[in-house]
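Lab notebook: predicted structure, single chain.

Context: the supervisor wants predicted structures on file for every construct in the current expression panel, including those that have not yet been purified. This is the next one on the list. No modifications to the sequence; it matches the entry in the shared construct table.
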Amino acid sequence: MSATTPVVYLASPVFREIADNPKVSVKYKFMINKVWSNLNTAAEVIVAESRFPSTEEIVQTVTEKEVDFIGCHLGHRITEEIVSIQSVKAVSTSNVGWNHIHLHPAIVVTNTPGVLAGTIADYTVSLILANLRNIVGLSNYLWNGKWTPADKWDLDRHIGKNTENLTYGILGLGQIGREVVQRVAPWGIHIAYHDIFQSMEMEERFPNLTYYEDVEQLFKTADIISIHIPLDESTQHFVGEHLLQLMRPHALLVNTARGGVIDTAALIRLLKNKDIAIHLALDVYEDEPLPAETLDEFREITAERPDLRFIFTPHSATADADTRARMSATMLANLNSLARSTTARDIKELNVVPPMAFLKKEPRMIEDFRIFRWWQGK
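Prediction complete. Output recorded below exactly as produced.
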């Protein structure tokens, strides 16, 4: 490699190693290996020895090696200290969300939109059906030996609720929200959605889809509400005490987006005080892993209020082998494009995060970014 060769730092060896996972399809194994080879041709690639290096380790490596581009995922906190290192020009994450990366005004940030929309939509629907029909509770009931000869079958034993005659509310009609609509529309139920923009195209495709400009009306009306909005300063605790109190008794709140969209403290307080009576299906949390004390509080609530059904999973909505492989391949491809970039035209082809979408509309804005000065020195 020459002195002008860009340096790429991967915060985990998993981005290449996932190609060796036997659950990953041959197609995606090939995809990762191909882009890996291309990236190593275009750049000097440095891979962290462990999957979760500390901030101090990342800072040390990025500083000493004068790293140009960083690859990471949600499990890596790319702090202000890291992106303030002058050599860093861009950060690429293998996730669609970017709240684990400090947005620096001179640093390009890319993500992997669209790659995981279908998988998360599938998982969302799975959580909904599992909660409505109490699948987890019934499974535990059997496994714990409670289904005995004395437990006679009867018409009103273990009854749940199917999707018939329900209103399904969707908060955020982005790529994931649209995938959810495609899956639940054939159920024939009323689907209501709230988003910054109304989608006439989606409403034309799905006649049972209705736009609610007023988010409060969505929360008042829906029997099921699933969250599909990103986490940023404007959406932190968006679903707070006020919206939670508007939810119908025994409505279901589903979150496969980001935990910080829900005000967890308010949710627990309202449930404990019996101000609300809602079911929960959560895959994401404000603090991850979910703190033991927080889990204990939810356990206390269910012990006192057994009519409420809570399904909690450990941030696993994207945990499909091929999806995770595509996430890695897309991130590596973004890094490869960055390493080979020479003009603003190249940035237009990247998956830049929404806060930086202006770079595609106003290419001249890239002149304020470090990568532009790097191009000038090539």
